[in-house]
Amino acid sequence: MMMMRAVSLLAWAATFSHFLVGSNAFTTLAPPLKQHSRASHQVLFMGWGPDPIWSTATVQSNEKACASGKSVSLQVEVSPETAAEFKVPGQYVQVRLDDDTKPLFLAIASAPNPENPSFEFLVKKTDGNEWMTDVAAGASIQVSQVLGGGFPMEENLEGFKFDFPTQNLLLFAAGSGLAPIKSAIESGQLNVEPVAGGRSCRLYYGEKTFDDLCCVAQFAEWEAAGYQVVPVLSQPDAGETEWQGRSGYIQNALEEDGIAVPRNSGALLCGMKGMTESVKDLLVKAGVFEGRILFNF
Questions:
Q1: SS3 of 247, please?
Q2: S-S: 75 plus which of 4, 60, 173, 190, CB 3.0-4.6 Å?
């Protein structure tokens, strides 16, 4: 069976180290300064960044994303205007149940598609986000406009900006940090080609156990499209499924494998701060151009 390894997403600062990867609502921000409603939406003034403009969305489905049930996959119908704003994998939205709910910051897991006004989210179950992970199909929630610039792939991976063309890609995702990486894979914007001489790609995806791995049913499809999937389990013996693959942490797996041609390689990272910093350090020391080590924040 095909597997993968892990990396998740760094936050803008230490206090934001989880909210873009679908793990939980932020709890460290200052309270809203004020709130008012417009004709068709509400604006929440947070005192930082763009003010979220809320619109109503409908939950289409809520299913287990992994065998353990510790993460869920949500399909949410958004407005055509919101769908059209999503252009680059790695962008995110704020999501809340109502005015009294602290928003979650969730990277969009589906590929950009203005013709399909539906977003997928991968959400790990944590204390306090039950309103999202247990939400029923048909329920109404509130979604902000699409935020962030996403992974700057076009600017930094294509062409000769860094002297050599990008021929080899490395993707690193841990936990629900798989969400924006999944979006990048399925978008086609990475321009990976499963042919001799085409751009190659390897995905390191980390979870605790095999049963915590999300999107396992899609691994074969990704492999057929040219993405080598390498799961890395930090606690393989804690799960119910026997594991014969890689164990430890993503950065350990990268160090073991090495980077064949660093100067024509690029990377996308999404995960916890410790992992992403370690992976970036390994990539830079190996000779990967720092400008080709991309984050979605």
A1: strand
A2: 60
Continuous H helices in 216-295: 219-224, 250-257, 273-286
pLDDT at 211: 95
Report DSSP state, residue 186.
H
Q: How far apart are CA 114 and CA 176, in angstroms?
A: 24
Q: Kind of pairing, strands 265-270 and 293-294?
A: parallel
The residue type of 18 is: H
Q: How many CB atoms lie within 10 A of CB 39?
A: 4
User: What pLDDT is recorded for position 18?
Assistant: 35
Q: Which amino acid is at 150?
A: G
- Per the DSSP assignment, residues forming a β-bridge with 74 are 62, 121
pLDDT digits (tens, 9 = 90+) for 214-224: 999 999 999 99
The secondary element (H helix, E strand) that includes residue 230 is strand 227-233
Instruction: State mean pLDDT over 64-83.
Output: 97
DSSP letter, residue 243: -
Q: Averaging pLDDT over each range in 31-40, 61-70, 241-250, which range is the top one?
A: 61-70
41: CB partners within 8 A, 6+ apart: 53, 54, 55
Report the distance separating Cα 114 and Cα 117, nearest Å. Answer: 6
Both tokens of 101, joined, read 């709910």
Query: What contacts 18, CB < 8 A, 6 or more positions away?
Result: 11, 24, 272
pTM of the model: 0.83
User: Residue 91 burial (CB < 10 Å; 0-12/13-18/19+)?
Assistant: buried
Rounded to 10 deg, the angle between the 250-257 and 273-286 helix axes is: 10
